[in-house]
Amino acid sequence: KEHINIFDVFCVAVGKDEPAWSVKYDPSQICAFIGSTVTIKCSYKYPSIIHGIKTEVKKRFWFTKLNNRVPVNLMKDSDYKGRITYNFTESSSSSSFLTIKDLKQRDSAEYKFRFITNRPGGEFTGSPGVTLTVLGNRSVYLLRIFVRRSETQTELKCESSCDQIKPPSYVWFNKEKKMEQQTSAIVVSVRDGGRYSCSVKGHDDLRSPSVYAPESLSAKLMSSGQITEGRSVTLSCSSDANPAAEYTWRKNNNQSVVSKDQQFILSSILSSDSGQYYCTAQNQLGEKTSGLVSLTLFILISLLVLIISLR
């Protein structure tokens, strides 16, 4: 099975009597994908000589579980059989490496390192340990695109809900077609009509929601029947856009804005409000303008007075 992502982790947690005895991990949280390989590293220290006697490490291992309050060595845990290796280095600051391959969803856990020396009471565990989150579906792993616009172009940045040790290579899509860029951020032209989404390389099925300029713009008069003076009238504008659009209303091809609300409400309409209205939906990726909506008033009162006077 192909392993797509390998993460090298240098882990920090503190033991007692720092710095004489210590275990250190950094960072405290790791994200990796199902099927990938992760390496977690710890450095640990202990006094080389105590009361003239050389300190020797007799046992060292990683664990996630306790059995009757005793840590269970991962090498003896059937859940990890054939999938883990330990590596150690000895220097002024000793190190331990835990490598887990073919990650499973169940591998999500807190991993701790423990070492036991030849000294009485010389048994130490780095706690808290490293929390590993194995990502395998959309409910766990969320990608989103942050949009920042200048006058002529827009920057799109792909970010995940879980920081990874080695920033992954991202893949970008425009209208479902894969783009050449494999960086966390790209620059696109304003009003180019694109629909952009991103994913981590090798995991096209875990894709962010698309971002795009307003589409399917609709402007309509919500009131029914004849419109007379004094009535309340609502003009409504809607569109499909991500990020969400902002709306403006204008009248009779005039550039001055009469409303910045998605629903333009004229609470007590006057004859001077008659005319043609249109709305514009805009976000950081572009804008779209609606067709004209006609608002016509019926002046029934004046007509009734005229009929009575003729009689």
Automatic annotation (TrEMBL):
Ranges where the Ig-like domain occurs: 128-210, 214-294
Family annotation (InterPro entries): Ig-like_dom (IPR007110), Ig-like_dom_sf (IPR036179), Ig-like_fold (IPR013783), Ig_sub (IPR003599), Ig_sub2 (IPR003598)
Annotated SMART domains: IG, IGc2
Keywords from the UniProt entry: Membrane, Transmembrane, Transmembrane helix
Bilayer-crossing regions: 291-310
SUPFAM superfamilies per the UniProt record, alphabetical: Immunoglobulin
PANTHER family: B-CELL RECEPTOR CD22-RELATED, VASCULAR CELL ADHESION MOLECULE 1
Protein's UniProt name: Ig-like domain-containing protein
Source species of the chain: Xiphophorus maculatus
